[in-house]
């Protein structure tokens, strides 16, 4: 039985078949249980821990996901690099459904989500100028291009509170700011990963153009889920390829994000 992992995947329930020799592990954290039991197994020679972001029955809407528990659970199992596939809407006409965006920047437009582990016993200020791991991004871009995806290297993900979609005015405002894609789950995942000195890489599948980009009735939940379901097998292949290409030893700055900082508690 594999009970440790060095790579984590946070994604939809369609990713369960990603792992070989999989075992389910119940993990407890100081922040409550994660979204579901953690499935640990192998992809080639790599050990991987998988958490379904919304729970296997999709019971957690974006603003209720136990983000802190999810990232803490992964780190407690040994994970130091995280891949985060998700569905997003495009704010750019040129990036249509089926494109893979590997963002390099993030804008938070959520409200009320707990976004830090360090909310007691003094402030801990962690750099977040570049939210995503450069090594993970490079690996993801290369894997997507090799897989024949319409790959967008870089761009800004704006994260909204949800669970509703954007109004046309909001969507046009986001696009007018030069942002690239819009989603509901990329924050606070990314900042919590940084606060745990984890590498975090977003693999964003465009499922639709956002409301302000094209004329029509606007995106629906059913359309997003149907498009993602049609592409989930291909997304599993992309994630598996990226997992196997991630470096065995980290040389990026993510692992030293907490160097020189006095933490109020010990990390797992």
UniProtKB/TrEMBL annotation:
PROSITE patterns: PNP_MTAP_2 (PS01240). Pfam families: PNP_UDP_1. InterPro entries: MTAP, Nucleoside_phosphorylase_d, Purine_phosphorylase-2_CS. CDD domains: MTAP_SsMTAPII_like_MTIP. Keywords: Glycosyltransferase, Purine salvage, Transferase. It is an enzyme of class 2 (transferase). The record marks 166, 221 as: Important for substrate specificity. It catalyses: a purine D-ribonucleoside + phosphate = a purine nucleobase + alpha-D-ribose 1-phosphate. Residues 6-243 form the Nucleoside phosphorylase domain. Pathway: Purine metabolism; purine nucleoside salvage. Although this enzyme belongs to the family of MTA phosphorylases based on sequence homology, it lacks several conserved amino acids in the substrate binding pocket that confer specificity towards MTA. Purine nucleoside phosphorylase involved in purine salvage. HAMAP family: MTAP. Belongs to the PNP/MTAP phosphorylase family. MTAP subfamily. Homohexamer. Dimer of a homotrimer. This is Purine nucleoside phosphorylase.
